[in-house]
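Subject: for your reference before the review

Hello V.,

The reviewers asked for a structural picture of the protein, and I figured it would be easier to keep everything in one thread rather than splitting it across files. Below is the amino acid sequence we used in the manuscript, unchanged from the supplementary table.
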Amino acid sequence: MLLPIAIGIAVIVWMFHNEFNPGALSGFEFSWRTAIALAAAAFFVVGRDFGLSWRFHTIAGGDLPWGRAVKVDLMCAFTSAITPSVVGGSALAVFYLNREGINVGRATTLTLTTLFLDELFFVVFCPILVMLLPEEDLFTACESQTLIDGIQIVFWLVYAGIVVWTAILFCGIIARPQAVANILHRIFGWKPLRRWQGAIDRTTSNMLETSALVKHASLRWWLNVFAATVVSWFSRYLVVNALFWGFVPSASGLLVFGRQFVVWVVLMVSPTPGGSGISEWLFTNYYGDLIGDVSIALVIALIWRMLSYYIYLIAGCCLLPTYFSRRKNKTQRE
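And here is what came back from the structure prediction:
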């Protein structure tokens, strides 16, 4: 918990020390517009958690009441905040769901379903985003062309990986689960890969269980869980839109939203806990041409990270002691 906080604070202090000019804020006045923007940003933070809690509540089929679904959501966000982005915190959702009374096998199935929905969101909305925004606007920086070239390369590489992984999950969960299981068993039966065969066996078993769950799900169920996923991710992006509306109203709302899409995809391969340090630096540089002044960019980046990151560290610290000290909840279905 202390490591990501230390990294984030160190980067922020370093950036403020080197690039912040107090005079740049002398002409800025805190107005009703700023107050509304901050309130809207806080509202979208709540929207992000509402979407994920709604999804947990729906996929659990009534075995996870809203209160417990919110706890699972906050603990997953906390875990993501203290683990490297390349590792992710979603794996511990299995543990949190189990603590709320869902047996381990079913919790794994539900977690795999949420993973598929998140990946599907990126696969669906990336082409839409590229059609709506010219690539030269989406990938532009105020200072370094090398930086923007790097962001563009990482974005498309990560997106290609998401497409491949989503295709595997689709085939393994919905289209041909048994065929995918057989292929993986054969691949990892090869001697050089045999050391991972146990993990692959568990993964394919989870895929087959997940397939049994979702294959018989109704269209309404799919619409609910995907709508919850869209609400969550859109709310996450709109936090920055709200801040730009209050601090830099001249910036294009669609472009601000589109660049958030790029930022979150790039941060998927961040080696630091929760993207700490890298997020602040990336935000300040990537949005620099829209803001115009690095000092204002630093202020917006700090507020953004407080709302989208540090708030979950605080929530997790508050929930953690009671979460592990109390008895595991029971559900109707074990």
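For the response letter, the relevant points are probably these. Residues 29 and 247 are 10 Å apart (CA to CA). DSSP finds 14 helices and no strands in the chain.

Happy to draft the paragraph if you're swamped.

O.
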